[in-house]
Specification:
A hairpin with a 5-residue loop joins strand 26 (about 685) and strand 27. It contains 20 helices and 27 strands. With about 725 residues, it is α/β, with parallel strands linked by helices. Among the domains are: about 40-120, Up-down Bundle (Methane Monooxygenase Hydroxylase, Chain G, domain 1); about 120-345, 2-Layer Sandwich (polyphosphate kinase like); about 535-720, Endonuclease, Chain A, CATH 3.30.870.10. Helices cover about 35% and strands about 20% of the residues.
Length: about 725
């Protein structure tokens, strides 16, 4: 067994004309002013994250976590979105999707720069004036060099000599030594150096702060309940003269460059192997065009001239961000993981195991008893792990097939798939090599699975496989039965504890047949015909959603009550937005629960007055995708891996599937969607002018924090799990 490169291409997946993918949308039928700009909407989302960092009602270390998330979000935004706009402007590249709001790349870049500079200033103000002083009050101190005692400096001298100095490589800048290549997001020191023999002659050098050493250097405990740290650049800075014999460092500034890190593989670029093509592209990523420079505010014009020269970074002035604190605030996330300081964090919550998946119960017996819905992270991601682990050991299981998008460093699911192959089962894993910024990790996991004997396939050229599906084929006393897991989130135990998602387990024959057909489509040459239950992108998802929205509009026009509730991460697709506008005009009441980007403008007179948009930001990242249609009193509920974006509809393999079990459907409507809609503590409502207004409880109205309510609901669901469960046999499932 080994790796099999899927020969299927984007065009083959589209199938024959009768089931071909919807063509990319043309220009919007509605006025451009009814569409909010995608990139500016993303900046609004990060503003809401910063709002959580600035909120004094949040525990201090949680505020620090939100601050680091803000900085990390901004990194990826520049690496991908700003980089794409710069490529359009400077290289005349055509955008994949024309913005319906009408803003060109230069106009977007100018507005992004204006808002991002203001955002970064407030980000550092939050650190310097709120969070940093608060940490010091609670005994967590980041000490500047001038604050250190002689004993602490002696400790750092030894640390520098033994741990840091051997790793450092100073790089001179002169006619024989051109400006060195600065790796993406690496922290560096730009040094101004003076010869001891020729005073007044200034030279420059660059020193990369080693990423292999923790940036937060702990100082020895002094017995006063204080935790003290020094930033690695502040360990290196005062000791730089040891690197330059006959010279002295007279000034230094920290800086960091962000480069274009987008990885997009076109069909005509794959010559022999998708794996080798992506590996080569990853090697080239560190050479991507620079898009942003972050530098200490102490940097003078001489330092900037060195960095902005044609031989260095060659950036516009608007691309330079001077910061009033440590360059790269993402490093501060390490403080959140400190032992102790429980009073500075949200109370811990242990994910609950649903009663139907109690620890001693056979998972296949549980699924045969009825469909199962699991709400992560309130209910344990261990249910998904258990499904794959039991399948890997069960002698009656014949085959396992899975899609893997983001795999995580230590993943029991990956280990279970390897064991299953070693146990002689037919195991197929579709590993998406183009999962943004997770490509290298996915390549490593794919190779590990291959060595264990798993059939590893690498997706479809021209498309990302983003759907979340697992199929287990099992021999039972009444024949072959297929067990299916479908989800809204990744097979990743790390994000399974941090993201809100839904898992659905079933052994309904229609879902099993569709899952088999989908995997045949992904791993072979199947054209992908009509499915029973699953709706697959890029073939049918956009058109199916449009038809469902139009059906609800028809109900409203006929005088029937009509309602749509949709929960997702982002709403961008102009055709879907137009369908929602048409439904609103028809009288459909529409509630959109959108965590991040929203290009729809609610509350526009005579167009979107019936549409309400709410964003929830809280402890967990809202990630589940749910759609509800009232359908004239015969409600339908769908779960999906897809946001409503052109890339999800036309350039990814995605799934949407109905929840037909009445109790599970009612649970989603009444105990998930209704709870989120009632949130008046962590919810923000999008206004017609594009701003967000934080909701507050009205007088006499109870305070509702939806994520806390879900924790309580999960505890209720788990009460029965404490009851003794009979032992069952993996071999027979009875």
């Amino acid at each position: 067994m080994g790796i099999f490169l899927v020969a299927t291409t984007h065009s083959q997946l589209n199938g024959p004309p009768a089931v071909s993918a919807p063509v990319a949308p043309a220009g919007p039928a509605f006025d451009a002013t009814l569409f909010l700009n995608r990139e500016l909407s993303w900046l609004d989302f990060n503003e809401r994250v910063l709002e959580e960092a600035r909120d004094p009602s949040n525990p201090l270390l949680d505020r620090l976590k939100f601050l680091a998330i803000c900085a990390s979000n901004l990194d990826e935004f520049f690496e991908v979105r700003v980089a794409g706009l710069q490529a359009q402007l400077y290289e005349n590249l055509e955008p994949q999707d024309m913005p319906p709001d009408g803003m060109g790349p230069l106009a977007q870049l100018l507005e992004i720069a204006r808002r991002a500079h203001d955002f970064v200033a407030r980000l550092y103000e939050t650190w310097l004036q709120q969070i940093h002083p608060g940490l010091r009050e609670h005994g967590i101190r980041i000490c500047p060099p001038g604050e250190l005692t002689p004993n602490q400096n002696d400790f750092l001298d030894d640390y520098f000599d033994s741990q840091v100095y051997p790793v450092l490589t100073p790089l001179a800048i002169d006619p024989a030594h051109p400006f060195p290549h600065v790796h993406n997001k690496s922290l560096n020191l730009l040094l101004r150096i003076e010869s001891l023999n020729q005073r007044g002659r200034l030279l420059y050098a660059v020193l990369q702060v080693p990423s292999v050493i923790n940036r937060l250097v702990p100082l020895p405990d002094e017995g006063d309940a204080q935790r003290r740290f020094v930033l690695l650049e502040d360990v290196i800075g005062p000791r730089l003269d040891a690197l330059f014999g006959g010279y002295r460092v007279i000034e230094r500034v920290a800086f960091r460059a962000t480069r274009n890190s987008d990885l997009s593989i076109q069909e005509n670029e794959v010559k022999s192997s998708l794996l080798s093509t992506i590996e080569e592209t990853l090697r080239q990523r560190k050479w991507g065009a620079p898009v942003r420079l972050e530098i200490s505010e102490r940097a003078d014009e001489g330092f900037l001239a060195q960095l902005l020269s044609a031989s260095a970074l060659e950036l516009e002035e608007r691309d330079v961000y001077k910061v009033a604190g440590p360059v790269d605030l993402t490093a501060l996330a390490g403080l959140y993981r400190l032992e102790g300081f429980r009073e500075l964090k949200e109370p811990p919550f242990d994910p609950q195991m649903p009663a139907c998946m109690a620890p001693r119960k056979n998972v296949f017996t549980a699924i045969r008893e009825g469909d199962i819905l699991v709400h992560h992270p309130y209910e344990s991601f261990g249910t998904v792990v258990k499904f794959i682990e039991q399948a890997s050991e069960d002698p009656q299981v014949l085959a396992i097939k899975m899609t893997l998008y983001r795999t995580a460093d230590s993943n029991p699911i990956i280990n279970a798939l390897a064991r299953a192959a070693e146990n002689g089962k037919q195991v197929t894993a579709l590993v998406e090599l183009q999962a943004r910024l997770d490509e290298e990790n996915n390549i490593d996991k794919a190779r590990m699975l291959q060595k264990a004997g798993v059939h590893v396939v690498y997706g479809i050229v021209g498309l990302k496989t983003h759907c979340k599906a697992a199929l287990v084929v099992r021999r039972e006393h009444d024949g072959i039965r297929r067990y299916v897991h479908l989800g809204t989130g990744n097979y990743n135990p790390t994000t399974g504890q941090l993201y809100t998602d839904l898992s659905y387990f079933t052994c309904r024959s229609a879902y099993g047949e569709d899952s088999s057909a989908m995997f045949n489509l992904l791993t072979g040459y199947s054209q992908g015909g009509q499915m029973n239950k699953l709706v697959v992108a890029p073939m049918h998802l956009a058109s199916t959603l449009t038809a469902l929205i139009e059906r609800e509009a028809a109900h409203a026009r006929a005088g029937r009550t009509a309602r749509i509730i949709a929960k997702m991460n982002s709403l961008v697709d102009p055709k879907i937005i137009e369908s929602l506008y048409e439904a609103s005009i028809a009288g459909v009441k529409i509630d959109l629960l959108i965590r991040g980007i929203c290009c729809l403008r609610p509350g526009a007179p005579d167009v979107s007055e019936n549409i309400r948009v709410v964003s929830i930001l809280d402890k967990y990242l809202e990630h589940s995708r749910i759609t509800y249609f009232l359908n004239d009193g015969q409600p339908e509920v769908f779960l999906s891996s897809a946001d409503w974006m052109p890339r999800n509809f036309h350039r990814r393999v995605e799934l949407m599937f109905p929840i037909e079990d009445p109790p599970l459907r009612a649970r989603i409507i009444d105990r998930i969607l209704a709870v989120v809609l009632s949130d008046n503590l962590k919810a923000r409502e999008l206004q017609s002018d594009g701003t967000y207004r934080r909701l507050k409880p009205k007088p006499g109205e109870p305070v509702v924090r939806s994520q806390s309510e879900f924790q309580n609901i999960a505890r209720e669901h788990a009460e029965d799990a404490a009851m003794p469960q009979p032992m069952t046999s993996l071999a027979t499932g009875i």
